[in-house]
Amino acid sequence: MLPPGVRAIFVTQAEALGLGHAVLCAKPVIGDEPFAVILPDDLIWNRGPGALAQMAEVAESGGASVIATQAVAPEQVSSYGIVATGEFSDRRGRITAIVEKPAPADAPSNLAVVGRYVLSPRIFDLLESTRPGAGGEIQLTDAISALLAEEPVLAYHFHGTRFDCGTHIGLIEATIRHALDHETLSEAAQGFMRDALAELGVVDA
Ligand code: G1P
């Protein structure tokens, strides 16, 4: 199902050379305009405008690229792109450095990149000259690091709850939370969960 006015164009990344390379594969269909990247294993849930809609507004008003960020536990920094920023105001702060999956000792902060980006088309030129980085992959993070030297890139604390559906437990949590919030499924979901917990002896039957 597509909303009116939306056209879907599919581009295949023939070889798994990294996220940066995957984004570069979309260059011919995007051309010379700002664009968004969504990593769908990061699910963000908000009752108001979605995280990307919030970010598009920030990008437009600030004339900048915008990256969603969230604080993570220090022991988790090596699973994410990590940013250093200037002071935050109105949920945004200018990124001064970004590094892909650093060891905790090398991390510039505990502010992690979440999978939503609004990027300037200049990133495509920079991706073309980005060499393999962390994990031997062409990293979007490394091209963003080069972009920082030329254009403003903002970290943005979005309104909403993020679920890391790249982990089993994150996917389960997202499913449960969405079911509980669902207009027609919530009641049945609650009943099912109560029964399951009672069967386990976690709550009284
Ligand atoms: C990718 C990015 C990383 C970012 C993460 C968010 O990593 O390379 O910078 O923090 O998504 O989910 P991946 O999860 O593909 O390893």
What would your notes on this structure say?
- Helices cover 33% and strands 22% of the residues.
- It has 205 residues and is α+β, with helices and mostly antiparallel strands.
- It folds into 2 domains: 19-163, Spore Coat Polysaccharide Biosynthesis Protein SpsA, Chain A (Alpha-Beta Complex), CATH 3.90.550; 167-205, no CATH class.
- It has a 5-stranded mixed β-barrel. Strands 2-8 form a two-stranded antiparallel ribbon.
- Helix 1 crosses helix 5, helix 4 (122-128) crosses helix 5 and helix 6 packs across helix 7.
- The mean pLDDT is 96.
- The structure holds 1-O-phosphono-alpha-D-glucopyranose.
- 1-O-phosphono-alpha-D-glucopyranose (G1P) is lined by residues 19, 39, 42, 80-81, 100, 112-115, 140-141, 166.
